[in-house]
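Hi, here's the filled form for the chain we discussed.

Project: internal
Contact: R.S.
Residues: 212
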Amino acid sequence: MAKKKLRVGVIGCGAIGQRRHLPEYVARPDVELVAVTDIKYPRAKQAAEEFGAAHVFKNYKDMLKLALDAVSVCTPNYLHAAMTIDALKAKCHVLCEKPMATTVKDMKAMNAVARKVRRQIMVGHNQRFAPAHVRGKQIYQSGELGRAISFSTSFAHPGPEGWSMDGLDCFFFKKRQAVIGSLGDLGVHKIDLIRWFLEDEVVLAGAKTGRL
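And the returned structure, exactly as it came back:
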């Protein structure tokens, strides 16, 4: 008897959706890409045609009426919490792009709903899966190098204007939608990497950011 495929939908058909989530779902034999949604309907329609989704929506709440097993949230930062909570309440597991949300209050609310409906949230911290990071953690955990007393990591990016499908009009440059800047967009990857790598919690944190 063939194993049932995981029925998934993607909320947001911008760059991260079309370059990572959609092609990687399609590449998995155990996943069925059922639906996509985007407030820019032509973009959603184009993505559905390219990746083979059967259903296209402009409003993500209409998509959640389908019998989906899991949903990716690939939208501007300020929408992550509300969309994730709505998807959880629709009995979907959620893969939410980073940052998980823009406030601690929202993150706690997301986790509370997930526990209540017995569904899982995973945040898109893909740095954990980089082969070099996986191997580095194995070496560290073996004890060969002793105990870490410092950890330095960096992350460079040419800029969202080249990455986003909306160029300079992308949400990264709109404070109300992005809420946080490069530290929230790229820094969260490295903060998560340190915690995961060392399997230790942060006691005290400080940050300094600037722009040119």
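Let me know if anything looks off before we file it.
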